[in-house]
Amino acid sequence: MKRLLTILLLAALLIIPSLVYTSDYIEGIISNISKSKYVGSKVCAGCHKDYYDSWITTLHPYKVRPASENTVVGDFIKNNTLVTKGVKNFQGMTEYSSKMSVKDGKFYVTTIGPDNKEHAYPIKYTLGGIWKQRYITEFPNGALMVLPVQWNIDTRSWTDYHSLKAGNPGSGKYWADKNRTWQYQCGTCHVTGLQINYDAKKDRFNTTWADSGAGCEACHGAGSEHVIAPMDKKTATIINPAKIPDAKRAAQTCGQCHNRGISVKETKVAIGPKHYEYPNGEAGYIPGKVLDNYYVEKPVEWPDGSPKAHHQQYNDWKKSKHAEAGVNCWNCHQVHGKGVISKHSLREAGDKLCLKCHQTTNEITHGIHANSHCISCHMPKTAQNAVKKGDALFDIGSHRFKFVSPAETIKHGGLNKQPNSCNACHYHEKDKPEDMLNVIDNVKNKRREAVGLGVRQTINEKPAKK
């Protein structure tokens, strides 16, 4: 009988984790907030001032801001023209020039609209401003549209964004096409508590939101029930991602936006895209639920699985040994801003962050460069956020935490088809991937011989008996 009870107990312990991960609700964590409404982070500050004051030092609150002299970083005065080349089949043009301007304190982009005519569109909101900045205008029906120009911070230059180079008006690829409405394409990862409020009969948007950026409730869920709850009910009416028992599900809190794909739910709006490009908001996901039930991931990757595009750090992380070990986003990033103040909100600066856990290294493979850093090799920049600066190929680091050997570049046909960890620094034509691989192999073989291991053996292999 005791043996049977032991077997049943072990079976239950094996089953429970899978239930925690696959069930859409976690009792006591999110079941009591379904009625909640978004109240905004300033309301949270009433009781959680320390967290609020540190949160506003991060980048999360500043994704979308009203356009003004304080928020627009692009050059609208001197370097204020973007020539789009490669225009095809549009009014006989081979190129088109968009013009940025300022008048009476307001900012404008003059470009081709959905009616095939040129208009000066007033900028209502800025989008971003650290790596790049895009600009949102409002159409007469309340549709918010991202204009076809992008300012790149590092290079101080303009580039195209869904312009005539992508397609003509009405193609579904042009910035002003109805299926590219910001409310459906980007909305709830740029703001918190988005209410699209589209009236199909009137073809009119009356969109509102609680926070212009990733506010408290983006991660903790809508807070109205929490605000009015008695003290003994407070914890049952809000989400604390750090207390979600399954580390992978907890990380989905960040994965709702640091991800790339489409929603499972359809928009069912004739003017919009078939699916939302985010899982949350009207698409249904809130932190604590199972993200896979709401989102189909479609990361853009290189042949070896390294990221090729931005905002897909969660897709990378899922493939990493960190994910397997239960090391999630906030083990490295201080989401409330109390760590090292930087655009990455890291808990420690530089290699100190990695060495808190990785106190020993493989002497055969590490330290080839005396001045190298952990992330130089293990978080190679393989993805592009803005545009390349100088000879550097990419500007976003991988979150797979995996060294990408030059052998991968050779295997897949060159740097344009597969970058590697070395080419972030060795990007000149004279630094061929074959040469880089030979250098690595030679250094490793010399070290193996020095410690009594045979050539091309691993550090874990025992030296051959003499």
Name a few traits of the molecule.
466 residues, alpha+beta, 15 strands, globular, five-stranded antiparallel β-sheet
Précis, in short:
The protein has 15 helices and 15 strands. It has helices at residues 2-22, 41-44, 49-55, 182-185, 187-190, 216-220, 224-228, 247-255, 313-318, 321-325, 329-332, 351-355, 374-378, 406-412, 433-450, and strands spanning 64-66, 81-90, 93-103, 106-112, 118-122, 125-128, 132-138, 144-152, 157-160, 198-199, 204-205, 261-263, 295-297, 381-383, 396-397.
Beta-strand portion reads 15-25%
Query: Which class best fits the helix and strand makeup?
Result: alpha+beta
Question: Can you count the beta strands?
Answer: 15
The helix count comes to 15
Unreliable spans: 4-22, 457-466
Span between N and C termini? 57 Å
Radius of gyration: 25 Å
